[in-house]
Predict the structure.
Amino acid sequence: MTSSPARTPFIVRLGRSLDARSWLLIGLFAAFALVAVPVMHLLLPPGNPLHLSTYFITLTGKILCYAIVAVAMDLIWGYGGILSLGHGLFFALGGYTFGMYLMREIGRDGSYQSDLPDFMVFLDWKELPWFWTGSDHFLWAVLLVLIVPALIAFVFGYFAFRSRIKGVYFSIITQALTYAAMLLFFRNETGFGGNNGFTDFKRILGYSITAPETRVVLFALSALALIGTLVLARFLVTSKFGRILTAIRDAESRVMFIGYNPLWYKLFVWTLSAMLCAIAGALYVPQVGIINPSEMAVANSIEIAIWVAVGGRGTLIGAVIGAFIVNLAKSWFTVSFPEYWLFFLGTLFIVSTLWLPQGVVGLYRRLRAGRSNRQESANDAEKGAGKARENCGAPASAPLAAAKGASA
Amino acid sequence: MRTIRLIVAGWLLGIACAHAAIDPALLGPLASDGNDAKIVAITALVDGAQREALPVLKAMARGSLALAGERVVIVDGERVIDAATNAEIVPAPEVTESIGINNRLRRELASTLAALRLFSSDREIRWEAAQELASGADAEMLPLLEKALASEADPEIKARLQMAYAQGSIGSSDAVVRLSAVRLLGESGDPNVLQLLGPLTEKRGDSWAEPDSAVRAAAGTSIRAIEKRLAFAENVGRAFTGVSLASILLLAALGLAITYGVMGVINMAHGELLMVGAYSAWAMQSVFQAYFPNLLDWYLLAAIPVGFCAAALVGVLMERVVIRHLYGRPLETLLATWGISLFLIQVARTVFGAQNVEVANPVWMAGGIEVLPNLLLPWNRIIIIGFSVAVLAAMWSILNLSRMGMFVRAVTQNRPMAGCVGVPTGRIDTMAFALGAGIAGLGGVALSQIANVGPDMGQGYIVDSFMVVVLGGVGQLAGAVWAALGLGVMTKFLEGWTGAVVAKIVVLVIIIIFIQKRPQGLFALKGRFVES
Amino acid sequence: MNSGDLLLTDNPDWDSGTAELGHMLKPGQLDLSHKVVLYLDGITVSFDGFRALNKLSLTIDAGELRCIIGPNGAGKTTMMDVITGKTRPDEGKAFFGQTLDLTRLSEPEIAHLGIGRKFQKPTIFENHTVFENLELAMKTDKRVWRSLLALLDSAAGDRIAETLQTIRLTAHADRLAGLLSHGQKQWLEIGMLLMQEPRLLLLDEPVAGMTDEETERTGELFLTLAGKHSLVVVEHDMAFVKQLGGKVTVLHEGSVLAEGALEDVQADARVIEVYLGR
């Protein structure tokens, strides 16, 4: 206790929020995404057994974006106890705001060779609507991605949390919000391409959007964004903020009566979660090459929740695992047995809520705990949270040790 | 031309004898060249043949009058009928020339026919003819109308004829006649009349189209009166479609009012229970088509119990297998029931195909009641409104009057206590859920009559149904009713101003704002139990 | 320290305000210039026509230990709801000190001003350790940004260790709070209240579910707290009330039926009627 804990540099604390094993795994993953993937995709010839196909890059890149959304969902649902059925909206908004930039980058290469995006020419519009101003600047687009969904989330969240709307009520209202937004975006007059949305992108920052190099860079960016999201989320849930957040989830009135205003805590994590979704959406659109209002469908938002549930709520890494399991299964089913996909997904919803309350991660922990014959195996996930505090650094446990010594 | 009508009138006034056949000499000139000649021929025919002229003139209006050699015949598909005797000619002779008509002749024939029908002994025919004339009569028909007015006894028909008379006399050179006509027309609710009166208040060049200022003023008053009546009818129409939408929302939400409102179970598969009901209706239609084709019109009555039972059965399965294990965990229930809904959608796709199926309205649900000239209330909507009221009443009495309803209320208020006094709480849960599901099935049967029936139909109702229940206040039947009414009427009136999609968005936003203000819904429960 | 009518002059802890006129107050600070910490006047609360509180008037002096008794439905819990901002009264005044209008403040604001509340059913954070429970309750800046970067310093660690000892849970510091016994949970909740350093503690049946020994110890703890803090204890256990020894208020049908020393109240004919029936 020589140095005041408050002066510990933030970056060090960020580093301490994960243990060595987790950092090792993250390092391995980063090496794979930033080095191995580009080499195996760009340098190895297609015939090589180690060559990674474009299909692989696109699919995995897409799922990396979904994983970011899943972590964002886990933050508010797993830790904050708020089940949002509107995260598809923020994802799509991020995609749309960045999509505006991509549409402008098409330039005169569209079907109508106009400065305006094709759908506007089709609607016989003569000039860009006001909210498209500046959309041809990359930085402005990035700024919008960060600000617009966050602002919408903030305003909506402020009113919802202030009125103490919680639980299922909140879920249903977020669902209504997404649904209303979807209807709005389906209209041509809204200025976002109606039914068809944005597609036929050509370039990003002047580079061809379909070039293998661009794909690899986008893939690497998605991987980095996922790592950043995970570390940030980990830091949050192991901080005092995280403990207050779970406290709000478990006993909101107690939190209020000890002087915290849950409104601002929920609002912070809600807005942050929305922002993460928007970033994921912005990375998703150039990789997939299309964004349309069906991304805001009610079903999509609920599916996000099942990724988290399958992986294991309140574990962060579970969200990533869940996103991969469900989406890999989806792409396998829709190719091989399209008629069974809904059966599978439906069963997944039922099974994971009935028999796997802690998801795959919980199952893994239970199996391991069963092997080492530990007693309190029922509360795995929560113990994880408890352990997190221990990991969070010496400062917190040092006085505790002192206290123990004093009482002994 | 006036002569024709005078002759017709004269003949009709003196109906005495009926001829068995028409003199072919009267028929021949109908085939003559030139419209004027044909009009003369029509006049002569009406004068000479009277009642028997009707089928011939009708055939002529249809363009199926023809010449077979010298004989005038009516061509009816394969058959050829002698115009003179109205009997079929066997074997059918070869048609040599058809008798063509142009627009002028068609108009002439139409009014002649209307005039003939105006004096029919059948009230229905007279009524129809009067209707036709009331939406377009001109000055030439005035004498005929005068006669008809003199002989007509039925007040409804008489009112129509007066309207037609006013329309005809509006062009009169006598200002007094015009004034009374304009005043009379002010009582009309027909949008066409507006076009008739409009010009009277306009200026043509520098001078008024209507020279008499009193008539002009009266026309203005009449126009305003008619517009007011039209606006009223339009609003009544909107209110009716609003109530109709409300009844649909209510049917969709009533089941949810039990499962969510009373039991607190978030059933995201509710829309699919509606789908089960709708497919039951389709199944019953198919069964009736195959086995009782002559009773086909009544398949819907059979679909009601079948839809209820089918959906209730699915509900029992859902409750027993999944929902029962998730009581008290609403968010998990939400996800699990969403899974069930995906499952049911795929089952429907596999069993019935991904395409929508055709469910036809029975004959007795077709058509409607014309309340005002521009307001038709369709029967299927009226029946569905009635049906929803009946379902609501049934549900209310089950919940409030029956023993089971008492048990349900007991269990929802205090589960352990209800268990202690011997209420079989588990069975009650299942039964209550089955009831809610069954009512959703009834909603589905009703929806099959006005909406598409397909595997995805349920998804469209889930947001709306939840909005109704949440807006009404959880656990409140009355709340659900008012919320459905409010949402339905508001949506329809908004649609009038903004279009359907924007109206829907606005309504959703209004609900979201409203719930921020009153999280407990319209009918909030107050007191110490609210928080828990 | 047995007496509820404790004199403030003995107590160096009361920093803000003296009995003199013309004192200065920072906004939001507790003004105890009239030695009254809580002032309820004519509070009425009704739910769907049922009057939970009926023109309730009550004053608690600074440093006082007050017991509130009354049959079920007398309005004890509703009264606490009003004081802590959970329920807004239909009419009436509720002041914390001389200046702070409780009817206009939210729950966190009221908690922040220094009113701590223990619920009838112990509410603690069951998925947090005992240590964390106390850490979260500790008096500190409770805004979002602060908690994002907050770290425990040694002074705070000492505070928690001290409280752990007071509530005798030092050995359980790292256990999940949900695994504690009922009595221990009650103590933990009291410990959380202490960590808040409140001026006024509202305790709803604090010894329910405790063993006799635990009850006795709780009583001792409360007696040491009185003076430094003001306490309002709602209790059914008459032996415990007797042990605490302060002034007793009897609530009945939402208003005060009797007030005074326990023996006087117990002798009151109306009180006997309410409790025993006719």
User: Anything to note?
Assistant: The longest strand of chain B covers residues 71-76. The longest helix of chain B spans residues 213-262. The interface with chain C takes residues 526-528 of chain B (CB under 8 Å). The CA atoms of residues 239 and 489 of chain B lie 6 Å apart.
